[in-house]
Amino acid sequence: MGVEVNGIAHIQLTVSKPAECLPFWEALLHFLEMETLIRNDNTIYCIGSRTGILVRGAPDEKRDVTFDQDTSGLHHVCFRARSNADVQTIYRFVVELGARIIHGPEDGSHFAPGYYSILFEDPDGIRIEVNHVPGRGHFGSGGRLGEDGAGPAASYGDDGLT
User: Fold this and answer.
1) Are residues 86 and 54 both part of a single domain?
2) Higher pLDDT pick, 115 / 7
3) Are residues 51 and 86 in the same domain?
4) Which residue in 2, 53, 64, 141 is deepest, having the highest Cβ count within 10 Å?
5) What is the secondary structure of 21-66 as a DSSP string?
């Protein structure tokens, strides 16, 4: 017998450019209605929406090693929005914030029914996605894990789940 967890309590990220990344993350997280619990020259920790994000600067001797999403470790962080309109509002904010935009609001229904998302990067190149999937997503009608669904996919990529 397993245990159903109640989401992710917090995620900790380490950045090589804290002078740029900490203000970026704090502004983003405040826009997402989270509040700062810890702030110092090397760390911010914001909580809210049943989530916590801690961002800290790497030790000085390791700051020349930058993020590479194709090496072992975190690929990206994805926040779940409540509507497509919220995804669009967050998109406008991150454009003004100066985020590097990978893609603006777009349909991603090949990943899940009604999937809608944006993808951007922080000053260190850490990728951040915001998505909205209506209803029960993969567990709902038309979803891979819903009644009469296709079941687990064997692969995923630019064309979605196959």
Assistant:
1) no
2) 115
3) no
4) 53
5) HHHHHHHHHHHTT-EEEEE-SSEEEEEETTEEEEEEEPPGGGTTS-
